[in-house]
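Predict structure. Chain length: 179.
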Amino acid sequence: MQGKEKTFRRKKEKATSLLLSIVVVVISLIGFSNWNTIGIYAGASWVGRLLYPFFHANIIHALLNAWCLICIIFIYDIKITRLLLAYIVAVTFPIDTLSHFLPLPTLPTVGLSGVVFFLFGSISLEVSRKLYYQLWMVFYIGIGFLFPNTNAWLHLYCYLCGLVYSILNYPITIQCKKR
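Prediction complete.
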């Protein structure tokens, strides 16, 4: 019975990610021009914080984020609770505090990438080639600092929060050699 429950649960996560991806792409097709209303930036309203993951700068941005979300949900055992936690971490990015210390973008940030980067961090100990995976993540986050309108600090923050989640929930086992 437990196997069927797990299969049903995985169907819920897959359906949720597909629905979320469709919503994100449709919203990007409709378009929105007032990023100060729905974006996250220093001094942003709570409405902007809650809505920014669903809006994207353009269709390519939306498709890339949606594709990453779908891939990670379909490949790894991501439960609804982890997906919700990823959303909470992304919308609680401490941009007001960090803007005093770091060169954050002045334009409002929009996009699902904070959620996606948390999920990337949260699977860090589940991947088979851990060092290879970490090196690629360093590359992807690092390249984000080179693009002017990318909030790489948000990506780094969410990835590190996901990595901490992974460390706390998937303890590393040490194998001892028998004599």
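Summary: The chain has a mean pLDDT of 88.
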